Each structure stands twice: as C-alpha cells, then as structure tokens.
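Supplementary Methods S3. Complex input for the magnesium ion-bound model.
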Amino acid sequence: MDLSAIRHLVTEQTAAFLAAGEHRLLIDNEWVPALSGATFETINPATEEVAGRVAFAGPADVDRAVQSARRALDDGPWGRMTPAQRQNLMLRLADLVDANAQTLAELESIDNGKSVALAKAVDMTLVAEFFRYMAGWATKIEGSTIDASVPFIPGAKFMTYTRREPVGVVAAVVPWNFPLLVASWKLGPALAAGCTVVLKPAEQTPLTALYLGRLILEAGFPPGVVNIVTGDGPSTGAPLVAHPGINKVSFTGSTEVGKRIGHASIDNMTRFTLELGGKSPVIVLDDCDPATAAQGAANAIFFNQGQVCCAGSRLYIHKKQFDRVVGDVAKIADGMRLGPGLDPQAQINPLVSREQMQRVCDYIQIGLEQGATAVAGGGRGEGTGYYVKPTVLVDVSNDHRVAREEIFGPVLVAMPYDDLDEVARQANDTPYGLGASIWSNDLTRVHRLIPKLQAGSVWVNSHAMLDASVPFGGYKQSGIGRDMGRAALDAYLETKAVWIAL
Ligand code: NAI
Ligand code: MG
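Predicted complex, serialized as structure tokens:
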C-alpha cells in the first residue's frame, strides 16, 4: 500500500504495523510463516489497494495450531492457573485494547472499510468491556451438590456434585463485518472457562486479530492459549473445524457455511454454536411518530453499511403512515454522504470487498427486475472504492427475493401492513429469526406482539442494541446457541457428575 497517502491520518502504531511487511501466524506464542510459504493480500476497500500481505495457513499449519492449543491446555501453565489468574490476564488484555483502541479502529477501517470513529466508539469499546465482563465470570463458574436418592440400592449414601470443566480446544471462525468484536465474543467465554483457542479471522479482515495477537503476548498469556491462523474458508477454516483435536467450534457467518460446519462437527461430536444470517423486521405501529420511525429505520439498516447480521432489512409500516415514513427514510438515505472510513464526515463507507459490493448490486437489480421501485439509491457509488448507495425499495412483497434473502448491504425493503396479526405473520414469514424491532409507545400492543415474534432479540424503540451481559443469537436458521451473557459461557463448559460412595 502507498502509505504516504494515509500516513497523516493514522497513528504511528498503525503506520508501523502496516509497514511491517508480511503478517505471520501466531502459533505457540511465536510469529511464524505458513509452512508452504504462501501468503494472501488484504485489500483496503476505500482505495482498492493492498493493505497488507498475510500468511496463508493450510491444513499443516492448522494442525500445528491445534496441537499447540492442546499442549497449552493439557501440559502448559494455563491449565494449572487459578480462575483469578485467568481473570487478571483477561483484565490486562482489556486494558491493552483500550490503550490501543485508536490503532485497532484504524486497522479495522483500513481492512473492512468502516468508520474509524464508529469502530472506536462501538467495536473497540465493546471488545474491551466484553473481555472485562467475561473476566468476571472466570471466578464464578460453579457446579452444584446433589442429594441423590439411588432407589435401586436401599440404604445407599452418596456424596454427589457437578464440576464445570473447560470444553477443551475451541475453534473460533469469525466473519469480516465486525472482525475484532466477533472474535472477542468467542475468545472471552473461552478464556474465562479455561479453554484454549485457535482463531481464524475472515480472509477479508485479518489485521485486527493479528494486532490483538500482539496484545495477547504483551498481556502475558502463556504459549498456545490463543493461536491465530489466517486464511480462507476451504484451506484454513474447513480443516480447522473438521480437526479431531477440536472440542468446540464457535462460528459467526453465513447460514450456508454454518450448516456445513454443523455437519463437519457432528462427525467428531465436536460441540458447536452458530450465529448466522438474518432478515430482521422493523415494525412501525401506527401510533409512532413518523420522523422517529424513519430515523430509527434508517439507522437500523445503514449502520456499518448494512453489513450487520441483525440489520433491520425489512421495514413494515402501517398503511396509514406508509408514504410519509418511506418518504422520510428515502430523504435520509439520499442525504447520506459517501466516503472512506478515515473521513469523519462520511456517513456511508465502502463495503468490505468488490465481491460483496457486486453481490449487493446484483440483489438491487434482482429486486428491480421483480418489480421493485428504488425510492432512494439503487446501485454503486461513483469513483474508487466499494461503495453502494443507501437504497430503499418499495413495491416489494414478502415473496420477492429481496425480501427473503440476506443482502448484507445498505438495502432496505419497505412494505405496508394492515393489522397486528398480519404484520406478525409477515415478520415471521422468513427462514431467519435473529432480531426484530417494534416502534410504538402503545404498551399493550407492544407486549402482545413480543411473544409472537420468532427472533432471538426484540428491541422496542431501538434496534441492534448489544451488551456483554445480554444473550445474542438466533431462532430458526439464524443459528444455534447464544453469544454474550451468561448463556455464552455455558457453551464453553462441560458438566462432570462426581459420585462418592459414603
Ligand atoms: P462466510 O460464511 O463464507 O465466511 C465467514 C467465515 O467463515 C470466514 O472466516 C470464512 O473464511 C469462513 N469459512 C468459509 N467457508 C468455510 C468452511 N467451509 N469451513 C470453515 N470456515 C469457513 O461468509 P462470506 O462468504 O464472507 O459472506 C457471504 C454472505 O454471508 C454475506 O453476504 C452475508 O449474507 C453472510 N454473512 C453473515 C454474517 C453474519 O454476521 N451473520 C457475517 C458474514 C457474512
Ligand atoms: Mg463464503
């Protein structure tokens, strides 16, 4: 990359990291090249230039990483550490994330395209707070004592209790839309539970995971606790999740790949949790102020350029208010300024890759061909960079592909409805079930609607709120299991029942 063009826009640490040359794999606390010597390029979506050259891990590298994680668990100091020692290492890591938040946000922007300001305020703040939240759980993992009856041995007495033990070596396979944030959702509960990890970042966005690797070393984690293998799905991700040395896979990404990972996991009886795609409805009841609804709906779809698994990509508006709300959303969309993530004035940044830009533009085209009308946007932004204009489609019905399939870009479909039962039916008429929002102050109708919605999160008068303490995950084809909250920790623990005859 021609660093001179951006050097004045980024911290010295960011420039130094980018200038360092080839980024290597982290295995056993050593930075190593791929055994094959292969590398791949990661691209800056704003400039379409190479932002870094990264080691391309193949099956042999994956195997080394899994073995290193196994040794750390079975023989290394990690397995012997007290919960409080694990907690303290995680708290140190959280402090290092805070201290490096600007650099991490810049790298995230250069790799993914997203706004530096938002990456710092949202992604990096959540990463640090999530590590702290999960650090707290390390010392609060408890089993129970059970007074067992054993009816088939009269007079028998047993002392019975359960132990919660780390599930083992975790494969964390993460996507490119919130690269470091989603990585933290896997690392946090794994480390709190006492597991070791092989992390595979997305091929589009490996840089922040690698920078985090430096911080993991600086925090003092012993060798092998966290290993980072960069590469693509077929050559790196697939051998990792199918490796017999892996005890649990935690995946976030497409439903298609999630299903494949589920199948591969079952062969080894590897535990798995999957956080997958979505097509989340935004439901505006007729008592809602139209301007509030429009701004809420725009934020729900355009944040992170719509590359959000729980993006509010279907907007249902009562027919009385349809024209007004859609008109306002279209006005907001038309007024958004396109620009690189390093520009604090820009409101819509480039999508992650040329492929994703093309995919989103293809969907807009499919929508138009099936009869939709674009009242805002409608295609690619001008000039260099993978920009798609914020787009609002009307004249769409629930059976159109743009209303059914995950587009993962700044594209909203808006549809009218008549009554509450009808909108609940429409909202649920999708294979997905990740999130939903309701916009209304009518408590009775809101509370009637909440139980009807098949979604892992329901937000009222907000959308896509996330916190370390609140479980997040999908109904239906949006996944299995939960990230965050106490529920996430359980997925990284086994339960051992202990019987002592007295
Ligand atoms: P993807 O699901 O292929 O990639 C996610 C991660 O899985 C990446 O790290 C990738 O290298 C890895 N992967 C791919 N194939 C694998 C395999 N066979 N075994 C193990 N790991 C594998 O998603 P992709 O292709 O980047 O995006 C396609 C679509 O998926 C997007 O347009 C979007 O609709 C959806 N998606 C949803 C996400 C979410 O947060 N729910 C995140 C990313 C993509
Ligand atoms: Mg893919």
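The chain has a mean pLDDT of 97. Residues 173-177, 200, 202-203, 232-233, 237-238, 241, 252-254, 257, 260-261, 276-277, 309, 356, 359, 406, 408 surround NAI (ligand 1) (CB under 6 Å).
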